[in-house]
Structure formats: structure tokens, C-alpha cells
Amino acid sequence: MAKWGEGDPRWIVEERPDATNVNNWHWTEKNAGPWSKDRLKELLNKFVIAQNGVDCKVTEVEKIDGEASANNRKGKLIFFYEWDIKLKWEGTLAGSKDVVKGEVHIPNLSEENDVSEVDISVTIKGSGEEAQRVKAFMHNVGRDKIRKQLTEYIRSLKEEFSKGLILPKKGEGPVKPDNVSMITSGFNKKVSMEPVVSPKTNQVGCKLDTKSIEISEKFQCRAQEFYDAMTRIEMVTAFTQGHVKLDAEKGGKFALFGGNITGEFRELVPPKKIVQYWRYKQWPDQHFSEVTFNIEEKDDHTLVTVKQDLVPTAEVDQTRDNWRRYYFDSIKRAFGFGAFL
């Protein structure tokens, strides 16, 4: 295995103006939040929906809360976005002077859901037959039109943030978006760790036999990259392929694999050490183990040693297997950290 910069093409800085992220091997990220807010406002504000004698228009984008980012790993783009949007709208029936006013709420625009599955609720202020007819129009026709605008946002997000995120190799021309592989986080995939505890052991107040586990694994990455893979929510989401809750600071909580794994960060020393309180959902109530990640960057790889204390004795073998299967192997697949030459 060549040392970094001594023959391995993933680390060689070729003769090129930028001299960064050669062959697109590293995880790189762009913040797409501010651009997204502007684009969503452009697509939704003053948006007109008219058909069959009903005229409606979005009069104000009242709220856009959330975030978006575009990430590159080995020539693949991974997009993360999650938005909570509120719109104000008004509409009239042909021949009527009465103006119906209401709101549209889009609480869950994210890569987790297909646009066709995104919740869009329509409400009105006031009542009456005309108001209900206009509301029905917005519910049946307006929501589909708004979905098309949201689809356009996603399309333009991918097109805009493909530019410059995938760098051409030496001697190649600019990378076209059509040639870029685009994937999402896979939030909608159901991935969970296999049960490792018999329900009979799930008792409070009983004496529990425990043991310690120690596992070492080599990763083809820098220490900071592995540390980021364990502490940055978008990277944890990418390798767990499920919804993640994570606050990477001392005392911060985390929940992974659909809530099967929960815990708390006890110590963070970038990029050398991570200490967590860690439990599997089917362990006895209130029982936590303590997990320490020691991250050591070598000449040609990063060595990660995981020590886990207070593991229920009956679950030691399965827990060790699950570390390799759901953490180590998944991290290597997601980010290419296992590709040794």
C-alpha cells in the first residue's frame, strides 16, 4: 500500500490549477441552504393557479425553515434537504368579488419522501359555499401544481450543485450533470440491527453480567474523515441509511437505526477520540455501555480501535458482529474508506 502522496492515485496532487480533491476521492460538501431558500421563493411566490373559472395565487412565502447540502464522494452526489414551508394564498370564483384567503403548509419536503408523498395541507379563513369551492380547487388542483414547482426545485438543486462539486481529472473537460451519478440518503429504506437480546433479560433491578469488547479496523481515509463520518449528521445518515438524530457535542444525544441505537456523547477530541454512552433498544431498561473510539492516523491508513465496556454477556458475540456489519462495513461502502490497493 503506497503512502499518501507516494503512488496511490487517490492522494496524488496532479499538475492542475486547483490541486484539490484529485479523482473526487474525498467527501466534499456545499451548503445549498441560502440558494434553496431563494429558489423556493422564486418558484412559489406569486405562483398563479387558474383553471375552470377559479383563479388562485400564492401571495406570500411566509416561512421556509430547514437546510440543504450537496455532497460528493467518489464521483457520486448525495443531496440532503429538509424544508418546512408555509404559504399564504388567495383565490376567487369567476363572476364573484369575494376573495377567499388561506394558507398552504408543506411540513416535510425532504429526500426521504418522493414529491408525490409530500404532505401539503390547505386551509381557508372564513366559510361559505364559495370559500369551500375555492378550497376544494386548491386541494384537488393547486396541490398538484405546487408539487410540480417543488419537483422543479429538486431538479435545479441537483443541476446547480453538480457544477464544480465533481472535478474533472487531468486532461478531461468539464463534468456534465448528465454524466454524474446522483443518489439520495435512503432515509426511506428500513434498516435495523437484528435483535441480540432475549426479552426475558429485559428486566429492571436484576444483576446483569457484562463483558468488554475491543475491535480494531483499518480505514483508507484520514483520521478527520473517519471522525466526521461519526459526528456529522449527513455522513451518519449516509452510512446508516435511515433517519438520524445527532447532536455532536458533550452531553449531546443521538439516535440511529430507527431508534434501535441511542446514547449520548461524553467526550469529543477531533480527530482522535470519541466517547459515548451507548445502548441497544432491547437491552435491559436503563442499561448503557460505554464506547470509546480511538482514532490513529498511520502512514497509509487510519486505525480505529473501539472499546465497549458493560456489554451484557449474552450479547457480546452478536454486538461485535453488528459493529462490523452496521458500522465498519457500511462506512467503507458509503465513503470508499475500505478500498486498499
From TrEMBL:
<dbReference type="InterPro" id="IPR023393">
    <property type="entry name" value="START-like_dom_sf"/>
</dbReference>
<dbReference type="InterPro" id="IPR036338">
    <property type="entry name" value="Aha1"/>
</dbReference>
<dbReference type="InterPro" id="IPR013538">
    <property type="entry name" value="ASHA1/2-like_C"/>
</dbReference>
<protein>
    <recommendedName>
        <fullName>Activator of Hsp90 ATPase AHSA1-like N-terminal domain-containing protein</fullName>
    </recommendedName>
</protein>
<dbReference type="GO" id="GO:0001671">
    <property type="term" value="F:ATPase activator activity"/>
</dbReference>
<dbReference type="GO" id="GO:0006457">
    <property type="term" value="P:protein folding"/>
</dbReference>
<comment type="similarity">
    <text>Belongs to the AHA1 family.</text>
</comment>
<feature type="domain" description="Activator of Hsp90 ATPase AHSA1-like N-terminal">
    <location>
        <begin position="29"/>
        <end position="163"/>
    </location>
</feature>
<dbReference type="InterPro" id="IPR015310">
    <property type="entry name" value="AHSA1-like_N"/>
</dbReference>
<dbReference type="GO" id="GO:0051087">
    <property type="term" value="F:protein-folding chaperone binding"/>
</dbReference>
<dbReference type="Pfam" id="PF09229">
    <property type="entry name" value="Aha1_N"/>
</dbReference>
<dbReference type="GO" id="GO:0005829">
    <property type="term" value="C:cytosol"/>
</dbReference>
<dbReference type="Pfam" id="PF08327">
    <property type="entry name" value="AHSA1"/>
</dbReference>
